Amino acid sequence: MLATTDVTLRLPEGFRKNLRNFKERKDVHQLLRKSQLNTVCEEARCPNIGECFTNKTATFMILGDKCTRRCHFCSVKTAKPAAPDAKEAQNLADAAQQLGLDHVVMTSVDRDDLKDLGAGHFAHCIETLKKHIPNVTIELLTPDFKGRHDLIDQVLRAGPHIFGHNIETVERLYRQVRPQSHWHVTCSVLQYVASQKQVEVKSGMMVGLGETDDEVCETLEKLATFGAQVVTIGQYLRPSIKHWPVARYVQPESYARFVTHGKALGFKTVFAGPFVRSSYHAKETHRAIAL
């Protein structure tokens, strides 16, 4: 159930972004439509879309644009999805080549309707990208696969380089914000992937949902024990009046505290700021860590 004590907060000027070059945005948008591909940039109404499309980068969203779950912060449609597109992997590889990408970020909707929850499609997309783009690095932002190790293993065997799975919020708010997901399952996914020691493990969370700074720091401590190496923290921006309300706009001193605390915990990086999202500057973040 959505919070009932909603006071709509006015978006501060510092939380508004320039749309950037319209022509470059249009070019990327047209390529995506021609390739019949979806992006989380568009579906989740990301504030960084202008910057990323201008730089000819995007986070591809596979397995359709309809999700089988309804998270109260997310603007992706909840509905019965269509069958997975058999041509999507090839279309994805072709589009990535046309955009000149050597670091591809891929996420998906939840597909609880599929027997393998979409794991096989993830693996096929990874394998196709690696076949067509030599030396590509592949970053995933996956659903929880209901915590099933066999499905996670199927994805890992395809050879991604970064496995991202977002914790999204603090434990106290988790079930309210994500009523069809479970805190312990999210935690178990991160722990299991880290225990395999095959990939860089990444997680992200939003702030401004009603948590405190202390709770964010406590969540960082938990993520460190799970084995996450990279964490992103950004301001939650309400997609519509029907979504979870913004409780506060987090200030720079809080982000500085999160970064300092994360460094003390041993993370390779904590990338925190108002416009930070899971895949924002993903290539640069990965390459900086790899140096």
CATH architecture annotation name: Alpha-Beta Barrel
Largest sheet: 8 strands, mixed
Number of E strands? 10
The span between the termini is: 45 Å
N-to-C series of helices and strands: HEHHEEEHEHEHEHHEHEHEH
Low-confidence stretches: none
- Beta-strand content estimate: 5-15%
Q: Characterize the overall form.
A: globular
Mean pLDDT: 90
**CATH homologous superfamily classification:** Aldolase class I
Strand order of the largest sheet: 1-2-5-6-7-8-9-10
Helix content: 25-40%
Task: Report the CATH C-level class.
Answer: Alpha Beta
Count of runs of 4 or more consecutive helical residues: 11
Count of domain modules: 1
Textual characterization of the structure:
This protein has a single domain, classed as TIM Barrel (Alpha-Beta Barrel), CATH 3.20.20.70. 40% of the residues lie in helices and 15% in strands. The protein has helices spanning 22-34, 40-43, 49-54, 88-99, 119-132, 149-157, 171-177, 183-196, 213-226, 252-265, 282-290; strands at 38-39, 59-62, 66-67, 77-78, 103-108, 137-141, 162-164, 200-207, 230-235, 269-273. The longest helix is centred in the middle third of the chain and has 14 residues, at 119-132. The model has no long low-confidence stretch (mean pLDDT 90).
